[in-house]
Amino acid sequence: AQSVTQLGSHVSVSEGALVLLRCNYSSSVPPYLFWYVQYPNQGLQLLLKYTSAATLVKGINGFEAEFKKSETSFHLTKPSAHMSDAAEYFCAVTSGVGSGNTGKLIFGQGTTLQVKP
Amino acid sequence: KAGVTQTPRYLIKTRGQQVTLSCSPISGHRSVSWYQQTPGQGLQFLFEYFSETQRNKGNFPGRFSGRQFSNSRSEMNVSTLELGDSALYLCASYPGGDPVLSGNTIYFGEGSWLTVV
Asked: What is the pLDDT of residues B90-111, one digit of tens each?
């Protein structure tokens, strides 16, 4: 079975500070990992995805994430936070047809990012 | 290229009623998945359809059902509504096949906000 744990339901940073949102996964097969962002009253927007091509993945809006198999982690970072980054962030995992999961995503509980001026 | 379109965006229903939500995937996408998002349970997978066939199903009661049409559009239905069904229902689409092997991105719509009173 697959699972995702996001450490910290709320993270607060100052504008210009480093953003670090933590995600650990559990999977018995090679995972396919995503980070999505959700702004108030909106759907989910893809930030980036890991599909085994490269362990350091760059996404939109200056975000990036590093896949570390030994730590079963896929933490999201951004060097300098902007006020517009305030939103809820979700880490998700799937493992595709081989595991019978196909397009089913397993989500973490989400982390709300607050950016202080 | 139009994104995933969900209708209606907002609706209010009374306990015991039923509701039908609609999702039009991105053109060319053959897989449609549905998720329920609540503050308490987070994002939970409902079901996935591919080429008009249900390919995967989450742990929801039989009151929750869905279908997919030949044009890939999908509907989900909830019968005998309960207060706990109040949630944001999100639809996601991707081209189909194995998301891991193909590297396809799973895109989400804006969601349908259902309030049961």
From this structure: 999 988 766 655 667 889 999 9
- Tell me the two tokens of residue A104: 């089913």
Closest residue by Cα to residue B81 from B36, B13, B11, B16: B16
Residue listed under structure tokens 């509701």:
B19
Angle, CA A42 vertex, CA B115 and CA A54 arms, to 5° = 135
Distance CA A114, CA A88 (A): 9
Q: Which of A44, A98, A106 sits opposite B108 (nearest CB)?
A: A44
Which residues, 6 or more positions from B88, have their beta carbon under 8 angstroms from its beta carbon?
Answer: B36, B37, B38, B111, B112, B113, B114
Dihedral in degrees, nearest 10, Cα atoms A109, B43, A85, A111? -10
Residues of chain B found within 8 Å of residue A100, distances taken between Cβ atoms = 56
Of A95, A100, A108, the CB nearest to B100: A95
Q: Going by C-beta distance under 8 Å and a sequence separation of 6 or more, which residues neighbour residue A107?
A: A4, A90, A91, A92, B35, B42, B43, B44
- Per-residue pLDDT tens for B44-62? 999 999 889 998 899 999 9
